[in-house]
């Protein structure tokens, strides 16, 4: 440790203004403060430093994402071996290894592209490097199907980081959630690789591992995909990839085809507990997203015509367990930058996210995943919600003051 | 004919005073007709013709138009020219005219037209007004063609309808970007052009 510190102190002058490598100053600073606590203190006034800075916040979110990510990797392997009919004779670790190797390149691509752009932008503007992409880079591979090509993820990540983040001024300035912009870009630019029944279960091999033929009767449609393409009226019967009926239990545990990190409501709830226990995410947003989703699904159950809108038959619990609803509620809607900031605003924001997610899901079969669009739409309205909440508060207090002086 | 001042009138709108990327006028048609190069080019030529001749006509009439009804007179002149353009397109380029559909008619409401008539033709002589109209039409057209070039290349893999992205790439897994066909990407492409243009012309930055 001491040797490293000495080495860093030795090369430091090169990076200061006027030094040979001064253009890489922010890269140097980023790594220095990553390795060691900065040895400068505030010079004036009294400052209270909270130990929760944005680096720690990001780290906690990453930890909270781990259960869903690890389960997602296992599920990728599980669905694959189920599809080729070799699940029974494959060990737990081989199943996990298959999923791990399938997901790892996506994580690497997302981080390399995103951090590359972030570092370049910081150099060009002589800003400090900020840690905002740490979470986005982990979210992106978790919300795409397993068979989305890597170059598409790279293009979409570059687009999102440049046009949704850097042009607005970098970390903390963006209007829309970066990871969801990436997904929306992929969804609208390359719909054939982001929806349908061919991308959610990997049927080919991964680096030569797990080659095999799919069994008869295989269909890679996600439960929500099945609901969206269900025609002819009648009761909706959701099935897994081999045609067996799915129970609510399966949907909750997450052994269903879907985007990598979004299938297991259980793993996401573990993440939610971590976020809430550490106080990183707002329980108001999370609670109200679920409330909005339940209210809207009940309304759909009662009033929507199931012959025209088959997804209206899903019960509130099924709606929450399927697709990206839970993931969006826990990890996307709670983004402190793009969501509402006032406490009342958080309830309104979250409730509308939940309502819109189910509304889009049920009434527009072209977009079976409504949660992404709901969060993005509400991101645009979050400042407006805050504005009215603040205005209402001002009016309320003025009225009280007037009554007091009477 | 082309004095220094006239040259400025003709060439200014191509870059430093561009109607689309500096004055931000005529954006709606830039979004609507730029998914393919061919309609964008036809639109650019149509708008140039209409602006140039409307400028000349209004400039000739400028001393006789009563001030209180000048907008109505301008509209009548522009509408007449647009109908002529529309009929010519229908007669000689029917397919393109069908693709452009209502947007030819909507040239009447293009802000660039009213802007040039109000700001320039009403106070300048016919020849200068003609140059101003051509300059602004071409300035608008350049942006349209640049946007359409990127949108058609990335969105459809073609230019003027001919495939330019080799089949080999598609076999390797390349796909056309469907988002480029949708209007939002026209907006972002225009924004990128503005970005490049402003960073090359520091005096335009606020």
TrEMBL record, chain B:
Subcellular location per the Swiss-Prot or TrEMBL entry: Cell membrane; Endomembrane system
Keyword terms: Cell inner membrane, Cell membrane, Ion transport, Membrane, NAD, Sodium, Sodium transport, Translocase, Transmembrane, Transmembrane helix, Transport, Ubiquinone
EC number assigned by the record: 7.2.1.1
Membrane topology of this protein: Multi-pass membrane protein
GO BP term, example: sodium ion transport
Similarity remark: Belongs to the NqrDE/RnfAE family.
Assembly information from the UniProt record: Composed of six subunits; NqrA, NqrB, NqrC, NqrD, NqrE and NqrF.
Name of the protein this chain belongs to: Na(+)-translocating NADH-quinone reductase subunit D
Organism: Barnesiella viscericola
